[in-house]
Amino acid sequence: MPALRKYGFLFSFVLLSLAFLPLNLYVLAYFAFIPLLFTPGSPKKRAFLYYLTGVFFFSSRLYWILFLQVEPRVKPFLAVGFALMVLYLALYFGAFGFLFGIIEKSRTPTGLKLILLPSLWVLLEYIRNHGAMGFPWSPLWMSQLGDLRISQTASLLGPYYLSWLTLLVNWGIFLSIRYRRAVYALIPLLFVFASEIYGVLTLKKPTEQTEKIRVALFQPNVLPREYYDPEEWRETENAFQELNRELKDSVDLIVLSESALPGFYRFSKRAQELIGEIIDIHGAPVLLGTSDRERAGKEYLFYNSALLIDTSGRITSKYNKTHLVPFGEWLPYEDRLPFLRNINLGQGNYTPGREISPLVVKKAKFGVLICFESIFPEISRAFCRRGAGFLVNITSDGWYGRTLGPVEHFHLARFRAIEEGRYLVRAAKTGISAVVDDKGRIVKSLGLFERGLLTAEIPLFQRETFYARYGHFFPQVIMLIVVILLFIMWVRKVRKNQEEVSR
Asked: Residue 131's closest CA among 416, 395, 378, 394?
């Protein structure tokens, strides 16, 4: 026990790391915070130890940023960005530790504490994941994807419920050990049991009959280049010619990845001829990711876009990425603060899109998630609320090599299928491409750095899950609970002070 008290933050870091990918020993997440909870100290000391845990944790989860293939002059900015990102995200661990230290020393009834602490974690996680700086990477709920049964609750209460439940179990076990009362652990376990039952029933529920669309996904396995490279063009043409020969089935839509072709598709005759050849052979429209630009007054605005090209070769519709990678594709808020555009940290000069609207092929609506938009539940929900019958994620993760980054990126996207009750098809330039069903199960997939194609019939569901209809209902209720419980604590403290004065 002395070692646990002294090095609790290291034990918690190890348990958390094991609970997440690549091992995904999800059960360990239910115990990961207990060593930290047993670590004694003032609120400031706890804040420091929790912060340290966060630094270790996010360093291990985001190390792949350092492997980004960029020109040498940008590497120092990359290292600085990685350090700042880790130090920033760890602040939420530290804030939780500080609040825990305050609440634990208060005379708040244990029953209220049982609800308050997990709720505070969810509140902090919710704040961290929103806004222009939002980055929901390795949220606590991600650990529970290892249990597909309990993950189904994301279709009901959203992903934050899983974070709340995981902290609730940690806190309940801690209280039961400290006060030697099993009831504190029993209550969280009842929540787990109920969630598991819900998941079992959901997974067993038969899939309703609906219209389907046949989709083909091309994974060319061509490494992206930062600048024009004739070799990339040759590799791309060879890859698409090979995949063209392999595709024998009739399909309704061919999906290519983000940055599917070098340069700007709209202004490249070579790119248009290559896509035209694919369309002529298969008689199907093509969805692809590319950079695009539009004139705005005297200047041009650049977008990371998805273009839908019909069988006549026309661009019939497009979607501009609305949530750009901060410090990668743009500087946050530069659209509101023009002076930020003069600061060069090696970022791109893209502009965020303004509209989330489904694209349509053969009367089938679908939503397009470009790259890391797939880790934001709100974007998928917005597409489905506007009638999308399935989701498409296009990405180009070859920049990060065989690291954990592309793997976690894919598995985070699986939650969008669960939340919305929609199939998700994913086309990646170098992997992982996949077809994921409406329960988050992987139907088909291609691994990292494989060349190949996938075809599948995708159901066009129109039903709405509870989460799709009501969104982040659960964290909003949690916010209300936190306010009420903090108010109760304040009232109790005021009354106590008044009693002491009257004595």
From this structure: 378
Mean pLDDT of the chain: 89
Task: Assess whether 263 and 395 both reside in one domain.
Answer: yes
Domain count, the chain: 2
Active site residue 457: no
Torsion over CA of 121, 162, 379 and 338, rounded to 10 degrees?
20
Q: In which domain, by residue range, is 94 found?
A: 2-204+472-502
Crossing angle of helices 160-179/110-128, nearest 10°? 150
Per-residue pLDDT tens digits for 404-421: 999 999 999 999 999 999
Mark whether 184 and 295 lie in a shared domain: no
Concerning whether 318 is annotated as a catalytic residue, the answer is: no
Active site residue 237: no
Catalytic residue among 365, 371, 384, 429: 371
Residue 68: its pLDDT value, please? 77
Instruction: Indicate the pLDDT class of residue 469, thresholds 50, 70 and 90.
Output: very high
443/142 Cα distance (integer angstroms): 20
At 467 the pLDDT is: 96
CB-CB neighbours of 163 under 10 Å: 26
Distance, in Å, from the CA atom of 415 to the CA atom of 393, rounded to the nearest integer, reads: 12
Residue 406 near residue 367, CB atoms below 8 Å: no
**Domain identity same for 48 and 101:** yes
State the DSSP H helix or E strand holding residue 353, giving kind and residue range, or none if neither: none
Q: Is the pLDDT of residue 482 over 70?
A: yes
Say which of 321, 365, 429, 439 is annotated catalytic. 321
- Give, in order, the Cα–Cα distances in Å from 443 to each of 130, 381, 384, 449: 31, 22, 21, 19
* 50, 91 contact by CB (below 8 A): no
Structure tokens at 346: 């090696």
